[in-house]
Design a protein that fits this description.
There is one protein chain. The two termini are 22 Å apart. Helix 2 crosses helix 3, helix 3 runs parallel beside helix 5 and helix 7 packs across helix 14. Strands 1-2 form a two-stranded antiparallel ribbon. It is globular and about 55 Å long. By secondary structure, it is an all-alpha fold.
Length: 421
């Protein structure tokens, strides 16, 4: 089951990223400018953000199996429409629908968290995140190669087949779950904001991920500018090669999840924040250029990727433990804050780069991570002084009666827990 859910995350996340690799092919095939073809990527990303806000909260209202099957079926049909689009406007519209509906990974996380015991939740989250990372990397690589061979429509059509096939598989493999909420749709949409006000641990996790992801986004946004500048004189392919180094996170996030299960999320968050700070120092050495500079950029980006993604495992574990009956709404609040932080980080990175250069971008990463670290140290101290929180059984899972279904647990005492991307 975990393998199937990991593949679901990979396919869903891959649908967001594979259009990035075929933009020039779309421009050539539809006889439009490269800037116009880039609207397809923008529409897909905007649609994905809208899907997190508008659809993910329904994961607490609609049974997971039905919801996942419908989402993947709609994604498959939208991908099929995109692959058959006769012109750019229909392709942009279809891309927006693809982004809107390909939020299955954000539904799978709460589902998996409710199917396992609390002492295995971190490992499961880490494995699912590993699948998402693999989907992102493989989608970019294979869509570009497939597009070069068979044209820009081929990646869309192959992705459509994968989504529809996966919808069929999930219809027969995902256990039936009882909805955690009976609230109306407007109430569900408003709930993430209420949870942010009511749950300090959610706010803490959102702050950690927003600041660290902002620094992460600033680095990757400005890295292309550094490599294309006079210090290196390299092209976009160099950025792509560095991005492939991030594949190592596929093996690190499950390990981080097991550490969260044994030690709790707070110690893992601390190590990850310190890792980001060290990565900023290493990355700063890349400003000098040359072979040594490129080596430091490789090591620095690898450490940054591992630390950011492993910290996300810790944050999500904390968030999912707060309210078993509202995991999808908690995830909506968390992911929205994370993406807002990433968007802000990209903008800030470019502003700092234009004024100070690469050293300034690395200083920005240090500053943003420092904010999270200052907030984290008192919480870490309190978690060490407090006894472990008790666990209570959470919502039931209903099935065909073929055997007992694992029950997950949630923390409830008021003391701060030892949360997230």
């Amino acid at each position: 089951m975990l393998l199937i859910l990991s593949v679901t995350c990979a396919v869903a996340v891959g649908n967001i990223y594979f259009p990035q690799s075929i933009g020039p092919l779309v421009a050539e095939g539809l006889h439009v400018s490269a800037d116009s073809a880039a609207l397809v990527v923008t529409a897909t990303q905007v649609g994905y953000t809208a899907g997190i806000v508008l659809l993910v909260p329904l994961g607490d209202r609609i049974p997971h199996r039905s919801f996942l099957v419908v989402l993947l079926a709609l994604t498959g049909l939208a991908l099929l429409a995109a692959g058959c689009a006769p012109a750019l406007p229909p392709l942009v519209a279809a891309g927006a629908v693809v982004g809107l509906t390909t939020v299955a990974a954000q539904i799978v996380g709460p589902l998996a968290a409710g199917l396992v015991a609390a002492d295995r939740r971190g490992a499961v989250i880490g494995t699912l995140l590993s699948g998402s990372t693999g989907g992102m990397l493989l989608a970019r690589t294979f869509s570009g190669t497939l597009g070069e061979w068979l044209g820009w429509r081929a990646p869309y059509l192959v992705a459509a087949v994968l989504a529809l096939l996966l919808a069929t598989v999930l219809a027969f493999t995902v256990p039936a779950t009882a909805p955690a909420s009976r609230q109306s749709y407007p109430a569900l949409l408003a709930e993430p904001l209420r949870l942010l006000r009511a749950e300090p641990e959610l706010r803490r996790s959102c702050l950690y991920q927003a600041t660290v992801f902002a620094g992460f986004s600033a680095v990757w946004t400005c890295l292309a500018l550094l490599l294309a500048g006079p210090a290196y004189g390299l092209g976009a392919q160099a950025v792509g090669m560095l991005a492939l180094v991030g594949a190592a996170t596929m093996f690190c996030t499950p390990l981080a999840g097991r550490l969260v299960d044994r030690r709790g999320p707070d110690p893992v968050n601390l190590v990850c924040m310190l890792g980001v700070l060290v990565s900023a120092v290493i990355l700063a050495a890349g400003a000098r250029g040359g072979t040594l500079g490129l080596a430091t950029l490789t090591v620095g980006t690898l450490l940054l990727d591992v630390a950011m993604q492993s910290g996300m495992v810790a944050n999500q574990a904390r968030v999912y433990a707060l309210r078993p009956d509202a995991r999808s709404r908690l995830n909506t609040a968390y992911m929205t804050c994370a993406y807002l932080g990433g968007s802000a980080g990209s903008w800030l990175g470019v502003q700092v780069w234009s004024r100070v250069g690469w050293w300034g971008v690395c200083a920005l990463v240090t500053f943003l991570t420092g904010i999270a670290l200052v907030r984290h140290l008192p919480a870490l101290r309190r978690s060490r002084e407090s006894p472990p929180r008790g666990e209570i059984p959470e919502g039931r899972v209903v099935g065909s009666g073929s055997g007992p279904t694992p029950q997950s647990t949630a923390a409830t005492p008021p003391s701060p827990p030892p949360a997230t991307r």
